[in-house]
Every structure is written in C-alpha cells, then in structure tokens.
Amino acid sequence: MTITVWLESAIRDAERRGLPTLRPLLEALARSTSALRAADWNENAAGEHGPSTDVNGR
Amino acid sequence: MAAERNADKDAGRDAEPRTIADLAAALKARELTSVSVVDRCLQQIAERDGTLNAFITVLSDAAREQAREADREIAAGGHRGPLHGVPVSLKDLIDLRGTPTTAASRVRQGHVAAQDSPVAARLREAGAVFIGKTNLHEFAFGTTNEESAYGLVRHPLDPTRSPGGSSGGSAVSVATGMAWASIGTDTGGSVRIPSAACGLVGLKPGFGEVPVEGIIPLSTTLDHVGPLCRSVGDARIVYGVLRGQAPSVARKEARGLRLGIPREYFLSVLDADVAAGFEATCARLRDAGVVIDEVSIRHAADIAPVYLHIVLAEAAAYHARTLESRPGDYTPNVRLRLEMGRYILAEDYARALRGREMLRHEVDAALGDRDGLLLPALAVPATTLGADTVRVGSSTGVTDEPIRNITLRLTHLFNVTGHPAITLPCGATPEGLPIGAQIVGHSNRTPDLLDVASALERYVTPDAATPRGIPLSGAAPAASRN
Asked: Would you call A25 an interface residue with chain B, using a CB distance cutoff of 8 Å?
C-alpha cells in the first residue's frame, strides 16, 4: 500500500470513528513512514541482498 | 526503648549520610533508625508534595510498619543488606501487593495488585521500605508528566517547569528527599530524561536484565526497568537488588578509559547551555586522562521513525481493547497517540525491526573496544509546563522543536538497541537547572558500565552540579527542617 493511499484510508477511518483530531497525527506519522521506507537499509526483493548489518563491511 | 535511644542519637549526629551505602552503615550500626528515616521522608512529602504532586499513593502507615520491622530485625542482628530499612518509591506502573497500580489513568480505576511484581518482591526481600507509588505520564506514554489522571508533576527547582518523564514523580521523590531511591521504567528515556532534568543518576540496564512481569507495559520490546538515585553507588546497590544479585565491582581509574562521542546527530540540535555544560564535562574528563574521540553511528538520524513504528504498534496492541471500551478514560492526547498506533501497517513494523538490527550493529561498532559512548542525556533543560515546543539552537540555526521529539532525541536509540545507559548530572544552566551527561555501555555488560561511571563520576559531576534548593539527604537533621 502506498503511503498516499494508506493516509487517505486512515483519515477516512478516523473520521468515521469520530476522531477527526487524529488527522494531523496521522499526517505526521505518514511523514515518518516515508522516512522509514526511504532508509537505505531496506531490503528489496528485486535487488541484491539488503545491506549487511556488518557495518565494518559497508 | 532501643528505637527511642537511637532516635535521640539521630538528633545529635553531625554527619548526615548522603548515600545509600552510608545510610545502610548507619542503620546497621543503629546510629539511625529506619523509622526516623521514613518519618523524615514522610515529612518532606507532607511539606512539598502538595505543590509538586510526585505521589499518587503515599503508604504512610505501611511504611512505618515496615520500618519498625526493619529496626527490629536489625536490632536482632538480622541486617539483610544495603537496602534494609531504606525508603524507596515505585513508579505507579509497578505492582505492589495490596495497593492500586494506577498507571496515572482512569482506565485502571479500582485495580488493586494481588501480588508483588518480581521487582517489588526483590526489593521487599532486601528489606526496602515502600514509601509510596509515584505519579507519571499516563501509561508512561509521554515525557513531561503533564497528562496524568492525578494531575501534573512540577519540577522541584521551578514549579513552572516539568521534571521530565515519564518517571517524573520518581525523580522528584528522590531529588527532594521524599525517598532515597525510586524504581522507574524507561521505554524511550523515561528514567534518564527526568534524572537529567532533576540532577539525578538514572540507570537503564540492558534489555531484559530486570524482569518486567507485574509492570504495565508500554512497548514490550523497548521497556526497561531501572533506578533513579543520587549517586552511581546508589544505582549500583539498587540495580543489584533488582537483578537479584549484587554486581561484581572492578575498580577502574579514570585515566586511560576510552570514550567515543557520536557527535553527528546527537550534538547537532542542542540547547546552548547544555552544549556548554557537556563540552566542559569533556574537558574535565580529558584533564583526568580519559581518552575521548569521535565515533559515527551512520544511521542515527533514522532512529525517530524506527522507534515510532515500534512503540506505537506495540502500545496500540496492549491498549486496543480499552481504546474501544473506555476511550473517555484516557487523557485526550494519550488516547490519540495510542490510536495512531492502530494504523501502522505490519510491513512498516517489519521495516522498523530491520532498522533496529542495523542500529544495534552500528552502536556495537561505535563502541568497538572503547569503554563507552559519551553524549548528553537531554538536549534541553527542564521544559516549561504547557509548552508544545522549545527553541533550540542547531547546526542550521534556531528552530522550535516539539518537546516530545527533543526530549527523546538522545535516549531512545538505546532502548531500540538495548544497550545499557546511565545519566549523571554534569552541571547546571545559569538559571540553576541541571544538565545531564549519558554514558552508554556494551550490550550485556551493565556492571562494566557501572564501573566506568563510578570511575568518572567525580569528574562528570562537580559540586556545582548539585541542584540548588534540593536537599541531598533525606535524613536531614530535625533542627534544619524548620
């Protein structure tokens, strides 16, 4: 699920549950999730093995 | 009769114990009675807690009875060890049989613990006296203690400021002499942050070292239990009891110890007074012969999203049922933060776990063959109650940082990686607010970290770091308390 789709869905659900004040927190969480997914240590099934956790070998 | 005689001796003593070891020696020698020490703590509570609000439950009668029993045992030659007869407080997340465990939340209304948590049981076995249960940020989910069903906690040096959290009541209880030590929990810094803000020593042992059973969790893979104390020696004593065995002691000299400073990220957003205090500490350590160099934790800046996705998801899992059934019993902001966790996707939680492994290896590599990492414990002095942000200098200028982010910034990495860490007071701002330095040790080597901290304490904590207006001794002479 892309972050855009996830955020739209989460905000809709929060509003449905009577929690409109959750919106700015979800938007902040979306920014944090974007940073998490952009980190260079994430693994990718189409690529090589992910970066080694042996930092001496980086 | 013996108790009365010893109480008379108390009034005539000219050297007051300042550490738990000294207090234990005085109790064992029957120069002091536990009853008199407990009474002085209770008097501090009576005099100051109306303003500071450190306690949710004060166990006056039970504490006096425990103290009488301790005095009887000691008089009969049954001294159990350094915590026998010593008043301690417990963060009110920790089960103590027969008392409520409120977590500072209406969600817990009506609860009374049926049995001791292992932590409380070990303290009880060691003869500690439970003086009370301390206030906290609701369910330990915050760093200011402002969101509590029992009201906010105030800083003992400036009641317009927060003592830090979430173990804020614990810190205040020790800093003001309401208790000689307190047991807190630390999920992102909740022992070290209030310890730094209040001028105390706060120890987060390595992950899994101290049992968490019988303690309300915030995040099961990040939660740690540790003591807030007035000295490294005190922390070592309490840690030994919490572990169920006293740690071995290897006396180290400061000269020749090797510390690494992870400057990038950790020192890039820092209050100017904190930065000055930390640099002065480094200078004192270098003068003492400590070898300090710079190290890199390459992905340190990724810690915030890694931490957030773990803590939110795990906290939401624990609270899901009561968020549905009793949402109005949470304070509004804690409820919203818990709700946020219910939207985290499993794939992002898995990414955060991958990030944790990366960071754990990077911290191990930064430690290398050094004795520890050295960094500030808290990027800003005690923050103002009611504020959402605090103005902080950074490498890119001055920014207004959200208080939750800036207070967690220097501590939560070591919850994610599980390395032991300790904070020591290292100075004060021109206004007299304490500044804390943090030393991080190798995984599974908390006793080594305590040895290093013991060797460095006299250089890290100069006399000037003693918070103004806070009595160091909970056993102040009766004549000085008027």
From this structure: yes
Q: Do A36 and B337 touch (CB under 8 A)?
A: no
Residues of B in contact with A56 (CB under 8 A): 365
State the Cα–Cα distance between residues B430 and B26, nearest whole angstrom. Answer: 36
Q: How confident is the model at residue A49 (pLDDT cuts 50, 70, 90)?
A: low
Does residue B28 have an active-site annotation? no
Give the model's confidence band at B397: pLDDT under 50 very low, under 70 low, under 90 confident, else very high. Answer: confident
The ipTM of this complex is 0.89
- Taking only the tens place, the pLDDT of each residue in A23-45 is 999 999 999 999 999 999 988 78
d(CA B481, CA B343): 53
H runs (alpha helix) in B132-258: 168-175, 192-198, 232-243
**Chain B 238-297, residues with CB within 8 Å of chain A CB atoms:** none
Q: Could you give the angle at the alpha carbon of B312 between the alpha carbons of B309 and B316, nearest 5°?
A: 135
Kindly report the nearest CA distance between residue A46 and chain B, in angstroms.
16
* Residue carrying the six token digits 């996830």: A6
**Residues in A touching B362 (Cβ below 8 Å):** 55
Closest CA to B38 of B3, B80, B77: B3
Within 13 Å of residue B115, how many CA atoms lie on the same side as its CB? 6
Please name the amino acid found at residue B366: A
- Indicate the pTM of the whole model: 0.93
